[in-house]
Amino acid sequence: MFRRALIGAALFSLVLAGPAMAATSTVTASDDFFSPSSKSVPLGDRVNWTNPAAGSHRHTSTANVSNPVKWNFNMPDGSGVSPTVTFGHVGSFAYHCDVHASMKGSVSVRMSATRIDANSWTVRAGSSSAPAGFAHRLQFRKKGTTAWTTLGGGTFTAATRRFDAPSAGTWQLHGRYEKGGTVSGYSPSLEVVTQ
Ligand SMILES: [Cu+2]
User: How far is the CA of 50 from the centre of ligand 1 (A)?
Assistant: First the structure.
């Protein structure tokens, strides 16, 4: 009995010690729109879709726009909750309803950064490395300027990449997910400030 309690406690602490727990949130397919149509989630979160109302909604990744994260769920009337999609890589992922051309939505996946020192950060682009064939691309610019520069000069597969601010001030970073020639949109911008 005592031994079993110890094992239980060990498992519990392992779960608590992990990174921020991934959450699942829901988009509602209504007549005829997604709510919310633009959704922003932290890296690693899951999203599902419900169709509680009358009307038939079939939502899918946007078929004719490049999108490295694909899903396609059939959603007949009152079908309840779709399977979840895990958003493990930063970017913005568009989708639409196959039945109603005007029904569009997107899920934007936010990046995070951990400070290394006054001018440097570890920027997280994925919950894990990009799988074979996929890659991350991060870009940066000084706040107030318009042109983005690709960090490291190209794509990478690691979950994180180091950013060294070229000069003092506020810097913006964003990232996207790529698979060959297909790319997601860019994630929301993250701001970091040198000390
Ligand atoms: Cu629809």
Answer: 12
